[in-house]
Every structure is written in C-alpha cells, then in structure tokens.
Amino acid sequence: MSSYQVPTAQAPARDTFGASLTGEGPAINYLCGDCNSKVSLKRGDPIRCKECGHRVLYKERTKR
C-alpha cells in the first residue's frame, strides 16, 4: 500500500464559469454610504471607500 503524496503544483483556482478567482473580470461600481463617492471594486478588493475609509457601500442600479 502506498502513502499519500502531496501534489507539487496546484492548478489555478477557478469558479463555476471557468474564470480565475485572482481578480480577473470587470470592476463593479459602488457608492459610499458616507461621502457618496464612486468606488469601483474587483473580486478580492477590500470593501472600503478609497476616499474616506467607510465600509458601507451600495451597489449602483443597472441601466436597462
């Protein structure tokens, strides 16, 4: 019986749709709840306003 061998190279993490989880993809626009400035965030970015540091962000409505 052989013992378990740890893999040496990991495959890149992928989500359900095949996109990499490393921050690729479009930036989503949010509005700061405190200073009302626009904040664009990508996957993995800290949820924090870049102007005032407030952590409550509201997603903008989509334009249909």
UniProtKB/TrEMBL annotation:
Keywords: DNA-directed RNA polymerase, Metal-binding, Nucleus, Transcription, Zinc
GO molecular function: DNA binding; DNA-directed RNA polymerase activity; zinc ion binding
tRNA-binding recorded as keyword: no
Cited Pfam families: Zn_ribbon_RPAB4
The keyword Nucleus is annotated on this UniProt entry: yes
Record-linked InterPro entries: RNAP_P/RPABC4, RPABC4, RPABC4/Spt4
Gene Ontology cellular-component terms listed: RNA polymerase I complex; RNA polymerase II, core complex; RNA polymerase III complex
GO biological process, one term: DNA-templated transcription
Subcellular localization(s) per the UniProt record: Nucleus
Record-stated family: Belongs to the archaeal Rpo12/eukaryotic RPC10 RNA polymerase subunit family.
Protein name (Swiss-Prot/TrEMBL): DNA-directed RNA polymerases I, II, and III subunit RPABC4
Species assigned in the record: Amylocarpus encephaloides
